């Protein structure tokens, strides 16, 4: 998926602390044509899978998931960040530590929108240590539903998440995998995929 890599090289900014800033096209200002290309690519990679729902996490996964969902013809559900406790009755819950803010959030999905008949495609913008995805996987399992696959726009391959998720046996399709980046030179090296 070279157009995403090319865009990262052109417009991505490497920040200190292993953060790649892509807010001019991915998670603040959003390039919908690019999201559409990403949707086409994931549709190809998950061909033959019976997907009934796309699940993502607030906030930056939502835009991508909505455009991608048009290629699968299914609804999007997003896990909401919540301060409230005592939601177990009506909600599936998981605890997720934010990579960028280092803050723990409880994330919730209403039991109305996910059940044991669902075959779920997880979508998110970034994969770093895997905390967000593990929370989403926990929610899918609480519902008795099935994770059919995982689509990530940018995986930072030098962090642990990709290995953890692949070792768990999931089909993880990252459209760009950054193996190295340097905030001093701005250089970004991609894995050949
Ligand atoms: P993880 O839970 O895998 O450690 O981190 C994934 C989440 O953290 C993503 O949902 C994403 O919002 C955020 N994130 C992780 N690394 C980066 C990064 O380098 N840049 C940006 N913009 N967000 C990141």
Strand and helix map with partners:
Layout: H1 2-11, E1 13-15, E2 19-21, H2 32-45, E3 53-57, H3 61-72, E4 76-82, E5 91-97, E6 104-110, E7 119-127, H4 131-142, E8 146-156, H5 161-167, E9 172-181, E10 188-190
Parallel strand pairs: 3-4, 3-7, 7-8, 8-9
Antiparallel strand pairs: 1-2, 4-6, 5-6, 9-10
Q: For the report, how would you describe the main beta sheet?
A: 8 strands, mixed
Low-confidence stretches: none
The ordered string of helix (H) and strand (E) elements is: HEEHEHEEEEHEHEE
If you average the pLDDT, what whole number results?
95
Kindly state the number of beta strands: 10
First-to-last CA distance: 8 Å
Ligands, ions, cofactors? guanosine-5'-monophosphate
Q: Residue share in helices?
A: 25-40%
Q: Quaternary status of these chains?
A: single chain
Number of helical runs? 5
Beta-strand percentage range: 25-35%
Overall 3D shape: globular
Radius of gyration (Å) = 16 Å
Q: Strand arrangement, largest sheet? A: 5-6-4-3-7-8-9-10
Structural class: alpha/beta
Provide structural commentary.
Helices cover 28% and strands 34% of the residues. It is of the alpha/beta class. The strands form two sheets. Strands 5-6-4-3-7-8-9-10 form an eight-stranded mixed β-sheet, with helices on both faces. Strands 1-2 form a two-stranded antiparallel sheet. Helix 2 (32-45) crosses helix 3 (61-72). It is globular, with a radius of gyration of 16 Å. Bound molecules: guanosine-5'-monophosphate (5GP). Residues 19-22, 27, 57, 60, 99-100, 124-132, 161 line the site of guanosine-5'-monophosphate (5GP).
């Amino acid at each position: 998926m070279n157009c995403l890599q090319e865009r990262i090289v052109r417009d991505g900014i490497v920040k200190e602390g292993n953060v790649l800033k892509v807010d001019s096209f991915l998670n603040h200002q959003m390039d919908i044509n690019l999201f559409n290309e990403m949707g086409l690519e994931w549709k190809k990679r998950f061909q033959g899978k019976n997907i009934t729902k796309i699940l993502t996490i607030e906030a930056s996964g939502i835009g991508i998931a909505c455009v991608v969902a048009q290629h699968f013809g299914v609804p999007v559900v997003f896990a909401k960040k919540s301060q409230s406790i005592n939601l177990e009755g009506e909600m599936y819950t998981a605890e997720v530590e934010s990579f960028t803010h280092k803050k723990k959030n409880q994330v919730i999905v209403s039991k109305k929108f996910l059940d044991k008949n669902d075959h779920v495609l997880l979508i998110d913008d970034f994969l770093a240590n895997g905390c967000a995805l593990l929370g989403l996987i926990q929610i899918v399992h609480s519902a008795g539903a099935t994770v059919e696959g995982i689509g990530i726009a940018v995986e930072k391959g030098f962090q642990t998440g990709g290995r953890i998720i692949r070792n768990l046996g999931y089909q993880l399709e990252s459209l760009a995998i950054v193996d190295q980046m340097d905030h001093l030179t701005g250089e970004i090296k991609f894995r050949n995929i």
